[in-house]
Amino acid sequence: MENSPLQVLTVPTAPYPDQRPGTSGLRKKVYVFQSRRNYLHNFIQSIFSSIDLRDRQGSTMVVGGDGRFFNPAAIEVIVQMAAANGVGRMIIGHHGILSTPAISCLIRKYKAIGGIVPTASHNPGGPDGDFGIKFNTANGGPAKEAVTSKIFQISRTIEEFAICPGLRVDLTTLGKQMFDLENKFKPFTVEIVDSVESYANLLRNIFDFAALKELLSGKNHIKIRIDAMHGVAGPYVRRIMCEELGCPVNSAINCVPLEDFGGQHPDPNPMYATDLVDSMKDGQYDFGAAFDGDGDRNMILGKRGFFVTPSDSVAVIADNIFCIPYFQHTGVRGFARSMPTSAALDRVAKATKIELYETPTGWKFFGNLMDAGMLSLCGEESFGTGGDHIREKDGLWAVLAWLSILATRKQSVEDILKDHWLKYGRNYFTRYDYENVDIDAACEMMEDLEIMISDKSFVKQRFAVEDKIYQVEKADNFEYTDPVDSTISRNQGLRIIFSDGSRIIYRLSGTGSDGATVRIYIDSYEKEQIFEDTQVMLAPLATIALKISQLHHRTGRSGPSLIT
């Protein structure tokens, strides 16, 4: 405890017009946070001001980030401002490190009013990379639109912020630190906690760790390769997968969190997780997985790099859900996927007579269904999968779910997926990303596209490519009415649905730091031709998608930045 009470200051400031949080918080280039006066302070104050003072007073909040550049400096400001804004206790991960799933776990465990997460998820790090601030509410999940809208409105008119600049926290030492503040009756408490233990304990109560240990280190164990991509998942992989479940230490790579992610893009997909993809090619490993910067996304690979799409991944987990002991006890309340995700999960839901929800992109929509007891398992095509144990997608949970299926079925990843296609048919799926497009050109293209597909004459139109003919059955701008609270989310993506169930979807993404990202999603179901190349099978629909949107002409791009 400090000897003399620490001073609390009210500092004048001026608002910025661009602090609207996207689907995963506020993300900007690092230099924006560093060079614009009080840019970080303004946004943090807007978060605190969005919470009623009575709820804030003496409350508990959780803080921890993915270890990227600017993380320690941001945490210091967050703690200083929390103290000045009446928060009574801060729970912080050791060294300021917490995965996004662990943040959700700790918010729920400590009954905190929320958590502030310094992360830009799968975006690049380092001084020239991205930084972000995300706010999770008391359920452990991302703030809903009503909350983020309130934060944005406050940020546009902010005139001052409260801070305790003399407060210095030691992030390296586990345990409690207490600080006396002027005009405060109770000391402000900071508790530095083990980043992994509470989350690991949660997983122990979900999965059969004895069966997983036998699979990974028993007599007939499989060989696995796990790539943490120098993100926050590294310490969790080492503690849970290696120390507890017996994986050899050398089977886990890139497990030291680095502020620039080793100069790599910490996005677990075949284009960026090249260390993992290359090491899987020769067939020495039976199972591979990669995680993103903050540990909530995952990629699953089988022997020789057999790729499992995130859409197929959640469908396979759904079909084998009782391989996970947690669901044997809780039962299954519902399945859900984001609208752009392929309809593979829908087929499992129909066969098992379990309710299926189609939501906009953003985990907060799943969280609302979970809080109402309507949802058990969900996933997004953007490499996110999770259950109702927390209110975030969870990369390590998804990996343990797959390993539980392997332990039960005693088959390879490829055989499990091919059996799934034989049983249900296959949804071929791809996504084209056009990144850093001029935002005005992108918006204009989307507006013109919406006008075109909204015209009554667009329905029933036919498009022919080679020997394939596709007839439009429905076209709209996706709108979602939440079955829990009846809130309506509009403008969630342009959909063209054809008579055979194939879909083309166009969206402007909200998770980048500059420019616009235009995404085209293509989903097509096949009952018979289930072992073909995805890009070959979807080529006709891709041609139609580009023709309808005139995307290359409108954006000046000759091709996508990324295909997944």
TrEMBL record:
Keywords recorded for this protein, A-Z: Cytoplasm, Phosphoprotein
Subcellular location: Cytoplasm
Gene Ontology biological-process annotations: carbohydrate metabolic process
Domain Alpha-D-phosphohexomutase alpha/beta/alpha span(s) in chain numbering: 19-160, 198-305, 328-424
GO molecular function, one term: phosphoglucomutase activity
Main location (coarse class): cytoplasm
InterPro entries for the chain: A-D-PHexomutase_a/b/a-I (IPR005844), A-D-PHexomutase_a/b/a-I/II/III (IPR016055), A-D-PHexomutase_a/b/a-II (IPR005845), A-D-PHexomutase_a/b/a-III (IPR005846), A-D-PHexomutase_C_sf (IPR036900), Alpha-D-phosphohexomutase_SF (IPR005841), PGM (IPR045244)
PANTHER family: PHOSPHOGLUCOMUTASE-1, PHOSPHOHEXOMUTASE FAMILY MEMBER
Name of the protein in its database record: Phosphoglucomutase 1
Lineage: Eukaryota, Metazoa, Chordata, Craniata, Vertebrata
